[in-house]
Amino acid sequence: MRIVMVGLPGAGKGTQAAYLADNLSVPRISTGDMFRVNISRGTELGRRAQDYMRAGQLVPDEITIGMAKSRMDQSDTADGFLLDGFPRNEHQAEALDRLLKDNGVSLDAVLDLQIPREEAVRRVAGRRLCRTDDSHVFHMTYNPPRSAGLCDLCGGELYQRQDDTEHTVRSRLDVYDRATEPLIAYYRARNLLVRISALGPVAEITQRSMDALRQHSASDRPVS
After folding, report:
1. Is 175 annotated as a binding residue?
2. Nearest to 68 by CA among 54, 89, 55
3. What distance in Å separates the CA atoms of residue 138 and residue 160, rounded to the nearest whole number?
4. Residue 81, marked binder
5. Binding residue per annotation — 116?
6. Catalytic site residues?
7. Superfamily for the 2-127+164-217 domain
8. What is the pLDDT of residues 90-114, one digit of tens each?
């Protein structure tokens, strides 16, 4: 299957993308990973992206699209993939359609993980990372550390990322509304949108997603 995943910041896209990709036996392709790989390998696209990032500017769509094309051309995507973080807007979605058409394939579904806006704020603003290893993630409400301000796994100091503050999260939600909501309409019009609730235990959300994707693939109708 070829799937795009969308949803508000805090909806759990990264977590679900990893589980779903494993369940579907397809690679997860995340925007963050594409940027890290291209920058670390010093590719032309990576160097161009880094120039914009160092200048504090947004990376143009054309660079992101180029990275996505390069990644999707790799052999492990022959039977499908799960895109996490791309496309982010309608222009990128149109470019993705062209890339897939050139390869004689198309998207199977766009999975929209839905949570209430205030829940998105709570989830992101409550997140704390370990300075020693930022893969150690805690949440002040849902997964608090045993000792305040310290990582349970290594004892490192916990901190809040600058873009995880409540004010910044609300700004990110506004950006999502402007850029990504038109993307939702774009895919709804193409009968690709599959919407599920992303509330509840992780395993339940994964199963809910798998069931909805199977139902969608067996039907000509979108799942709402």
Report:
1. no
2. 89
3. 10
4. no
5. no
6. 13, 88, 127, 161, 172
7. P-loop containing nucleotide triphosphate hydrolases (3.40.50.300)
8. 999 999 999 999 999 999 999 999 9
